[in-house]
Amino acid sequence: MAVRPEQPLRITPDMLLSRRIDFERRMRRVPPVTLAILAVLAVIFLVEIKVGALASREAIIGVGALVRERVAAGEYWRLLTAPWLHGGVDHLVGNGIALFILGMLCEAAFGPAQFVVLYVLSGLCGSVVSVLMSPGPSVGASGAIFGLQGAAIVLFRQHRDRLLVRDRRVGFVLLIWAIYTIVGGLMEPFIDNGAHIGGALGGALMARRLHPVVLSPLPSERAAPVRRRLWLVAGLLAYAVFGWLRR
Question: Choosing a second label site near 12 at 20 to 30 A (CA), which of 34, 129, 178, 212?
Fold first, then answer.
C-alpha cells in the first residue's frame, strides 16, 4: 500500500508570534535618564523666567538661543545650548510629554548610554539644519525629540519581525504631537521646523548604528565605541557650557 507523503506545515503569523519580544513589557515605567533630562529642562526654564529671558528677542538670544548670524560669527556653542531652552510654558509642557513617551521607549530600546548619545546628537543635528533654514532665533528640545522619534521608526522597521507592540495608541499620540509641534513652528517665532527635520533625520541615521539592547545585551566589542561616543557628547556639552559662560 502506497504511503501518502506528509503535507508540509504552513507557518502562520500566529505561530511566529511566540518568537517575538513584547516590547512594552520590556519598557521601564520610570526611565531614569529621561526623567533626569526632564528635570534639567525644567530647572533651565525656571532660570529663563528668573532672568527675564522670555521678555524679548534680545533677551532669549542673550541666554543662548540659536541665531544664524551669531553662529556664523563663531558662537558654535549655540548649536548645543538652544535645545535646552524653551519659549514658553506650553512649549515646555508639549515637549515634556513627548519626551517622556519617546524617552521611555528609546531608553528601553537602546539603554541609557546610547540613549544619551542619541538625544544630544539629534539635538545638534536639528540645530545645524535650523541654522541653514532659518535666521532664528529658535529654541526648544523638539529637534532632539524628533530624533528619538526617527530612531524609534527605524527600530520598529528594522526589527518588525522580532518586536511586538500591542498598544497602537502610543503612535497616535506621537502623531498628534508631531502635528502640534510643526503647526506651532509656523506660528511661534521661537520654534523652528528646521530643527524638527534635522533632528528626525539625524536620529534615524544614528539608529542604524545603535545596538538594540531590548533584543540582546550590548556585545563587549561594541562597548568601547559607545564609551567613546559618550566622551564625545560630554566634551560637546562641556564646550557649550564654557561658551555660554564666556558669552
Answer: 212
Does some domain include residue 16?
no
Provide the β-strand partners of residue 31: none
Q: Is 142 a catalytic residue?
A: yes
Sequence letter at residue 108: A
Residue 172: domain span: 24-245
Is 5 part of a structural domain of the chain? Answer: no
Q: Which of 142, 159, 211, 220 is catalytic?
A: 142
DSSP 11: P
Give the global pTM: 0.82
Element (H, E) at 164: strand 163-164
C-alpha to C-alpha distance for 88 and 92, rounded to whole angstroms: 6
Most confident of the following: 36-45, 46-55, 148-157: 36-45
pLDDT at residue 120 greater than cutoff 60: yes
Q: How many domains does the chain have?
A: 1
Inside any domain, residue 224: yes
- On whether the CB atoms of residues 34 and 178 are closer than 8 A, the answer is no
* Residue in 196, 211, 216, 220 annotated catalytic: 196
Cell numbers linked to 150? 526617527
What residues are paired with 66 via a beta bridge?
A: 138
pLDDT tens digits, one per residue of 91-110: 898 889 889 988 988 998 89
- Is residue 19 included in any domain, yes or no? no
CATH code where residue 230 lies: 1.20.1540.10
- Report the distance separating Cα 47 and Cα 195, nearest Å: 23
